[in-house]
Write a structure and sequence with these properties.
The chain has about 375 residues and is an alpha/beta fold. Helix content is about 35%, strand content about 15%. It is built from twelve helices and 13 strands. It has helices spanning about 15-25, 40-45, 75-90, 100-115, 145-165, 180-185, 210-225, 255-270, 280-285, 290-310, 335, 355-360, and strands spanning about 5-10, 30-35, 50, 95-100, 120-125, 170-175, 200, 225-230, 275, 315, 320, 325, 330. Helix 1 (about 15-25) runs parallel beside helix 10 (about 290-310).
């Protein structure tokens, strides 16, 4: 039976988010689909337009950005009621949203509010975040491409640093990641070139120890004549004022812990240090996106459409690995909404040499392209 469905995205784009959109639309070809424009603001304001797979150019799946537009909003109960009125007025029977833990919290709340007010509505989440912090899954679409970008460019930054060590003995490279260290760990992968691997990595899951950090930098200087450090933007949070736990991530995180740490090194050790913030290019670089990540993002979209067509609700498409293959099994939104998955204890370290198992886990996600 034909249904009227809504597809949207909230939160920031990734380099493969458009693949999820196109995958959803391809699998929903027998249904009437509307596109949500502009994230949660568009949901409350009713910015819905008809859409088919033919409207989304295939080229869009190979670029960064979001064909749907993105956005964030701290949604109130009044907003939920307004959104439900908008959905009812447009005859929407099923909603799929692409996003992270904040998006899954919005979807869960929308589904719960619909049920509480006697409205029939199916809600399904399509996972998307470069931070890789969604619970209940092995890895998240968007992460593999951001990780591939870091695994590609950070070793070259290390080579550049080796050339410049005489005038810049310490370089500290900052990754995205908010309150988790998955991306910073990805930046330690060096493709069998240990001479240009980071000497130190700092992640939010480990409390920052000022004395130990300075000692580790000093040790690297003595051993290698330079110190090359990777830091997650959420590590050493006491060095910055960025609130990584803000509701729905509505405050822009500007970055800067690398520069604060570089200033600390210069002051305490008396050596020149540079703080390098890699910024939004990590999530937007279509040129270095992983083919595996792009294919998985599209498949996650297809599975979401199938779940809605079966009138399933309260679920997020899950990704798990079984014998080297990715399996797409649903995860209850109640188990995902608003929760954050940190790096597990066995991968929490400041020494990149201890991360062999993590690199083995990561490698298949980076693709071959």
């Amino acid at each position: 039976m034909t249904m009227r469905l809504l597809i949207g995205q909230t939160g920031a784009p990734t380099s493969v988010v458009n693949a999820s959109l196109r995958g959803f639309l391809e699998a929903a070809a027998d249904h009437d689909v509307l596109a949500l424009r502009g994230g949660p603001d568009g949901l409350v304001e009713g910015r819905l337009t008809p859409v088919t797979a033919a409207d989304v150019p295939a080229a869009a799946t190979r670029h960064g950005g979001s064909w749907l537009g993105a956005g964030r909003r701290a949604v109130t109960e009044a907003d939920l009621d307004t959104a439900l009125d908008v959905l009812a007025a447009n005859g929407i029977e099923g909603v799929a949203l692409i996003g992270g833990n904040g998006t899954m919290a919005l979807l869960h709340a929308l589904g719960e509010r619909a049920a509480a007010t006697g409205r029939e509505l199916s809600v399904v989440g399509i996972p998307k975040t470069v931070d890789n912090d969604l619970v209940g899954i092995d890895h998240c679409p968007g992460y593999g491409s951001a990780a591939r970008y870091l695994a590609t460019v950070v070793p070259d930054l290390a080579r550049d640093h080796a050339a410049m060590a005489g005038i810049e003995p310490v370089r500290i490279v900052e990754t995205l990641g908010r309150s988790v260290g998955w991306l910073a760990l990805a930046a330690t992968r060096h493709r069998d070139d240990p001479a240009h691997a980071p000497h130190l990595v700092l992640i939010p899951e480990l409390a920052f120890d000022r004395a130990a950090f300075l000692a580790a930098v000093q040790d690297a200087l003595h051993a290698h004549g330079r110190a090359f450090v990777v830091v997650s933007e959420g590590a050493a949070s006491e060095m910055t004022d960025d609130p990584f736990e803000a509701v729905n991530h509505t405050r822009i995180i500007l970055g800067g812990v690398s520069r604060a740490l570089a200033g600390l090194v210069s002051t305490e050790l008396g050596v020149a240090a540079r703080g390098e913030v890699l910024g939004m290019v990590q999530r937007s670089s279509g040129a270095l996106a992983s083919d595996v990540d792009r294919a998985e993002a599209a498949e996650a979209g297809r599975h979401a459409a199938k779940l809605l067509a079966d009138r399933a609700t309260g679920l997020m498409v899950g990704l798990h690995r079984d014998g080297g293959q990715t399996v797409y099994d649903p995860v209850p939104l109640a188990e995902v909404a608003g929760r954050t998955r940190p790096v597990p204890p066995n991968w929490r370290t400041t020494d990149p040499a201890d991360l062999g198992d993590f690199h083995d886990w990561l490698s298949p996600l980076l693709g071959q392209n």
